[in-house]
Amino acid sequence: MTKVRIFVTYKPSVFDPQGDTIKKTIHNLGHDEVKDVQVGKFFDVTVEGTGDQVDATVKEIADQLLVNFNMETYTYQVMEEHQ
Amino acid sequence: MTKVRIFVTYKPSVFDPQGDTIKKTIHNLGHDEVKDVQVGKFFDVTVEGTGDQVDATVKEIADQLLVNFNMETYTYQVMEEHQ
């Protein structure tokens, strides 16, 4: 059993309106020390199996469901792994 | 300058309907090896300063803006730090 965290973010070329709005709101709260905000989502996914099997599952569910490759990109990291 | 990633998740006691729906959709795609899905959001925040200053800023913007403490909780990690 493996627990992975899949991070989905906008591609660098895509404007992040939510991040921009949050940054302005943070400035309105008086925190001018905050220079940039970018927003993303993540999926904590528990998968039966380990290693290559899990890599294959992550790639497939990212391709088929979780990521809009027109605007988004993803990375993932293994959080826990048990044989 | 410090870049932190702030992770916001539902509290364990709060049902995550989006995660549950995604899990069912993944099963419909044939990936029964996926046992659990939980959804969260993250904020990549670039802050002027380092160390305790940054910790204070993160706490204040989480408390004042980013986190709904009725349903959510947060953690954060430093991704990059430059003097």
Automatic annotation (TrEMBL), chains A, B:
<comment type="function">
    <text>Part of the phosphoribosylformylglycinamidine synthase complex involved in the purines biosynthetic pathway. Catalyzes the ATP-dependent conversion of formylglycinamide ribonucleotide (FGAR) and glutamine to yield formylglycinamidine ribonucleotide (FGAM) and glutamate. The FGAM synthase complex is composed of three subunits. PurQ produces an ammonia molecule by converting glutamine to glutamate. PurL transfers the ammonia molecule to FGAR to form FGAM in an ATP-dependent manner.</text>
</comment>
<comment type="pathway">
    <text>Purine metabolism; IMP biosynthesis via de novo pathway; 5-amino-1-(5-phospho-D-ribosyl)imidazole from N(2)-formyl-N(1)-(5-phospho-D-ribosyl)glycinamide: step 1/2.</text>
</comment>
<comment type="similarity">
    <text>Belongs to the PurS family.</text>
</comment>
<dbReference type="GO" id="GO:0006189">
    <property type="term" value="P:'de novo' IMP biosynthetic process"/>
</dbReference>
<dbReference type="GO" id="GO:0005524">
    <property type="term" value="F:ATP binding"/>
</dbReference>
<dbReference type="GO" id="GO:0005737">
    <property type="term" value="C:cytoplasm"/>
</dbReference>
<keyword id="KW-0436">Ligase</keyword>
<comment type="subunit">
    <text>Part of the FGAM synthase complex composed of 1 PurL, 1 PurQ and 2 PurS subunits.</text>
</comment>
<protein>
    <recommendedName>
        <fullName>Phosphoribosylformylglycinamidine synthase subunit PurS</fullName>
        <ecNumber>6.3.5.3</ecNumber>
    </recommendedName>
</protein>
<dbReference type="Pfam" id="PF02700">
    <property type="entry name" value="PurS"/>
</dbReference>
<keyword id="KW-0547">Nucleotide-binding</keyword>
<dbReference type="InterPro" id="IPR003850">
    <property type="entry name" value="PurS"/>
</dbReference>
<dbReference type="InterPro" id="IPR036604">
    <property type="entry name" value="PurS-like_sf"/>
</dbReference>
<keyword id="KW-0658">Purine biosynthesis</keyword>
<keyword id="KW-0963">Cytoplasm</keyword>
<dbReference type="GO" id="GO:0004642">
    <property type="term" value="F:phosphoribosylformylglycinamidine synthase activity"/>
</dbReference>
<keyword id="KW-0067">ATP-binding</keyword>
